[in-house]
Amino acid sequence: MAVVCMVVLGGLVLMMLCICSALLRWNEVKYRKKGLPPGTMGWPVFGETTEFLKQGPNFMKTQRARHGSFFKTHILGCPTVVSMDPDLNRYILMNESKGLVPGYPKSMLDILGKCNIAAVHGSTHKHMRGALLALISPTMIRDQLLPKIDDFMRTHLTSWDNKIINIQDKTKEMALLSSLKQIAGIESMPISQEFMTEFFKLVLGTLSLPIDLPGTNYRRALQARKNVVNMLRQLVEERRGSKESIPDMLGLLMKDDDNNYKLTDEEIIDQIITLLYSGYETVSTTSMMAIKYLHDHPAVLQELRKEHLRIREKKRPEDPIDLNDLKSMKFTRAVIFETSRLATIVNGVLRKTTHDMEINGFVIPKGWRIYVYTREINYDPFLYQDPLAFKPLRWMDKSLEYKKYFFLFGGGTRQCPGKELGIAEISTFIHYFVTQYRWEEVGGDKLMRFPRVEAPNGLHIRVSAY
Ligand code: HEM
User: Fold this and answer.
1) What are the coiled-coil residue ranges (predicted)?
2) Number of domains making up the chain
3) What residues flank ligand 1, with Cβ below 6 Å?
4) Overall pTM surpassing 0.70 (yes/no)
């Protein structure tokens, strides 16, 4: 009897699924070729921003169930098309030259500067990206950056023994201060502390409403930008005055030879802000979440620790991590990818249309935003078996990193140029952390997953020597 019931029930479920999927397809076909993609625009001015921010990924999934994986909405002050289709996402990212340029909010562009990489397209972007790639090339990582990262991490991680630390704050400090050291060798605490305070205000403003009134995050961030620019200008002038040629990132940016396009001071400063900003939140949040997942998965931590102890065994305590060590950290790389996937450090990227254009059979008007929403791809059971589980081993199959739907670092012409540098930083941090310390969570801290991954009151851990 039970078996018959199950078969009948199974049949009914299957029939329902077929009907739902047919309805979905019909919905898509109905709207296609008729103009705008399907979807709702919500209230005047506010659109569906409240639902988007409150319900987060569930809002996206509900809209997808109603309208298909390419739908219109109105969020964060702009008419927007959300694309959740992996192939369309790829198409959009690969076709900037057809008029699908970065579409980040006005506040972000005002605060990061008009020479920021997200503000330029076409040949200027190509040129700027080339200049940035030269600063973070594999040779630069080997000779210049990795030794500095190593030195920084050793100091940053000293005296955590027997303390309760907020790992969120520590990883944020780490990401920013380590970059400052790589860019210009800045280490002296008073300057870096002052810089850090202003930089954090700047970051907060990039995701605020662009309302220039006293007390708003936007106004505070504009002021912080002025202070950051002044500090960086002083740095550039000091370097110029010293006549010394230092082969670090700042030295390369300021290099004045016949083969190089000579950057103005304004361009140099915006390039530095681009570097600091792009690597800051991604590196810090991935590092914090790696610590969280490792804490929750002791067997993975044990495996990871083995990898790092093996490296340490061959070295004297004072020997730094070198490029070969980094290359041998295969499991660490897997842990970083798995953290980035499961936590969804980057939900997606924003583009906007430079003219009316047709995508997927719909017309997208000029100036509309396109949210290339890649989050759901991270949990697709066809791409990642058992997608909600933390299983770094899946990345030991190297081909996963080169699959066509690998968007953890973006895709197309804007794919993250700092990927390997970011991995080098997180790996070195993990190396010194897991070989020196064990830790447990104090408990009671909340984690938010959307719109960004963060612990609103910090993530506190009790650390002791390993
Ligand atoms: C785990 C670390 C990182 C993640 C997950 C990450 C992710 C991303 C993503 C998704 C994009 C694409 C943005 C878009 O298409 O609009 C991007 C772009 C970019 N990233 Fe990263 N990133 C990381 C680390 C870094 C680091 C350390 C740096 C700097 C040294 C950096 C520099 C950049 C720059 C300059 C761009 C803009 C590229 C362009 O517009 O051509 N990133 N990153």
Assistant:
1) none
2) 1
3) 102, 117-118, 129, 132, 136, 274-275, 278-279, 282-283, 286, 340, 345-346, 349, 408-410, 414, 416-418, 421-422
4) yes
